[in-house]
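Bumping my old thread because nobody answered last time. Still need a sequence for this structure:
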């Protein structure tokens, strides 16, 4: 049920952290994956490593750089992915930013706009671009990597959390509009995961030790643990799940 043989998956922000783990696990399960981030050399290195790791199976990886805040680059990502592999079966919107740490009352307009563009508008654009092909084929899976920050308030990550909540609303609406076309859309809401993106949090003992103390599993998560959830949502194993937010946080939100 978790087999992704010959499926084509486009994953943004996939040269490191959660995105890279998702790309690798989807390739391990047979998918042809498109590695994408801003830097071409990083994309090429990640694609080469993943292709080498899964050389004995059907999975493979291609590198297509893209800055998600530029609409024309997103369109190029979609066009080149289709040109290379013929279609997009799975879209994983993983790339995101958090450019401000502090009260929402103090965030400058440019930082607010940058966060919304990267975390919300870019995902809306990319889904708009990938959905017509999915509609034409009568199937598809969209996965947006959100955060438990979208489920609760914060006095220092408010704008980031706002965008993560918006991602949850985005997939709900895609699920409603495109479910009749056999297209599913879900988010994954990770807790604290050991990535470069969250390094400032998990390397800070004043933040991390109290967090672990109130997390039932008494640890932070690893990128591969989010990748497993993504494989589930992309495969037949998750074929009756849509419009949902799958929380993977070691139990901290309970």
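Sorry it took so long. Here it is:
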């Amino acid at each position: 049920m978790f087999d992704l043989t010959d499926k084509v998956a486009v994953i943004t922000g996939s040269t490191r952290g959660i995105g890279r783990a998702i790309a690798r696990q989807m390739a391990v399960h047979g998918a042809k994956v498109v590695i994408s981030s801003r830097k071409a050399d990083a994309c090429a290195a990640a694609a080469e490593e993943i292709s080498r790791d899964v050389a004995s199976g059907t999975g493979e990886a291609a590198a297509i750089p893209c800055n998600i805040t530029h609409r024309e680059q997103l369109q190029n990502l979609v066009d080149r992915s289709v040109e290379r592999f013929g279609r997009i079966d799975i879209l994983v919107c993983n790339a995101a930013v958090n450019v401000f740490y502090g009260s929402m009352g103090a965030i400058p307009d440019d930082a607010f706009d940058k966060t919304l563009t990267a975390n919300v508008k870019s995902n809306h654009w990319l889904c708009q671009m990938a959905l017509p092909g999915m509609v034409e084929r009568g199937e598809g899976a969209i996965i947006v990597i959100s955060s438990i920050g979208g489920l609760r308030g914060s006095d220092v990550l408010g704008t980031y959390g706002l965008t993560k909540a918006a991602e949850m609303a985005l997939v709900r609406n895609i699920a409603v509009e495109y479910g009749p076309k056999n297209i599913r859309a879900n988010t994954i809401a990770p807790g604290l995961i050991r990535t470069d993106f969250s390094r400032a949090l998990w390397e800070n003992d004043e933040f991390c030790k109290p967090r672990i103390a109130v997390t039932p599993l008494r640890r932070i998560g690893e990128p591969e643990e989010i990748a497993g959830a993504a494989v589930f949502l992309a495969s037949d194993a998750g074929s009756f799940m849509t419009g949902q937010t799958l929380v993977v946080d070691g139990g901290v939100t309970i």
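The chain has eight helices and seven strands. Let me know if any region looks off to you.
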